[in-house]
Specification:
4-stranded mixed sheet; Double Stranded RNA Binding Domain; single chain; alpha/beta; 194 residues; 6 helices; two-stranded parallel ribbon; globular; Arc Repressor Mutant, subunit A; 6 strands
């Protein structure tokens, strides 16, 4: 039995390198822009254990297979040939975040909803700011499409799918993901409100 709590790999993204991590239960993290040591350290702290590269001999074959499948599907998404993901997720989030992420996961390819609209869809009208917080904590961006949740007035809003990027870099990634899906906003400015 391995002493690892997760394994990770990388795959190319339109803006650089994407990190993807898996456990015995599925994909536990997708990181959009951090350097590998920062990603590994943060994930090890979050999961309270050791995170190994997928090619390490201690990593179970099933974890490697999960990573191979996830990165294949993400690559197809970036290439414009995949609209939905079919990989197991290991979501270790609060009940609130789980509710919000489930709502975001129901957004179809190319569909957007404002934070307030998503709050209404999950039965919590008036909780737009709390929805924004949950989107910012999404541990598996792209697989759960938090980029499809935008600000009021069709502005970009924020993008918390990245823990290291400055705001402009994060918003550029959000724009890039929306563009892959053919989504254009009437105003591509960032709003102050999430």
């Amino acid at each position: 039995m391995t002493s690892a709590v997760a394994a990770f790999t990388t795959c190319p993204a339109p803006w650089g390198t994407l990190h993807v991590a898996a456990t015995a239960n599925g994909i536990v993290a997708v990181d959009l822009d951090n350097e590998t040591p920062v990603f590994v350290d943060a994930l090890a702290r979050r999961l309270h254990g050791t995170v190994f590269p997928a090619e390490d001999g201690e990593v179970p074959r099933e974890w490697r297979d999960t990573l191979i499948e996830a990165t294949r599907q993400i690559g197809e998404y970036f290439g414009g040939t995949r609209r939905r993901f079919d990989v197991s997720l290991d979501l270790r989030v609060s009940d609130w975040d789980r509710l919000v992420l489930a709502g975001a996961a129901r957004l179809q390819y190319g569909e957007t909803a404002s934070y307030g609209e998503l709050a209404g869809r999950i039965g919590r009208p008036g909780a737009a700011q709390a929805v924004g917080g949950a989107m910012g904590r999404n541990p598996v961006p792209i697989l759960i499409p938090c980029h499809r949740v935008i600000g009021a007035g069709r502005t970009l809003g924020g993008y918390g799918g990245s823990t290291n990027a400055d705001r402009q870099t994060a918003l550029a990634i959000k724009r890039s993901l929306l563009a892959i899906e053919g989504t254009t906003l009437t105003r591509l400015r960032a709003s102050r409100a999430r």
